[in-house]
Amino acid sequence: MTQEIETRRLLVEGVQALLAGQREEAQRLLMACVERDERSEEAWLWLSGAVDDPADIQVALENCLDLNPANERAREGLRWLQQQKQGH
């Protein structure tokens, strides 16, 4: 299996795990995906939904925006995170 196919498999399985409510498995798979391809905007965005620590969420969203400053979902995520920090 080529590295690109394996990376895509990790992403797809990570998303499926997250959607199935298996957050720890999703986090493991998506972390493996971004370790293989740190330029995967999609993996960083999904990873932001698989981690619990606000600092980890922020890092994932910021990495996503570094790759694509126009990613509105990542911007919305950061706005939500700021609101949570402010207690709203």
What does this protein look like?
This protein has 88 residues and is mainly alpha-helical. The chain has a single domain (3-86), classed as Serine Threonine Protein Phosphatase 5, Tetratricopeptide repeat, CATH 1.25.40.10. The protein is built from 5 helices and no strands. The chain has helices at 3-19, 23-36, 41-48, 54-67, 72-86. α4 (54-67) packs antiparallel against α5. It is globular and about 45 Å long. The N and C termini lie far apart (47 Å).
Task: Give a quick rundown of the structure.
This protein is mainly alpha-helical. The protein has five helices and no strands. The chain has a single domain, classed as Alpha Horseshoe (Serine Threonine Protein Phosphatase 5, Tetratricopeptide repeat).
Which secondary structure elements does this structure contain, and how are they paired or packed?
Layout: H1 3-19, H2 23-36, H3 41-48, H4 54-67, H5 72-86
Helix pairs in contact: 1-2, 1-3, 2-3, 3-4, 4-5
- Which residues form runs of ≥5 with pLDDT under 50? none
Shape: globular
What's the tally of helices? 5
Proportion of residues in helical segments: over 70%
Compute the number of strand runs. 0
Sheet with the most strands, sense and barrel status: none
- Rg of Cα set: 13 Å
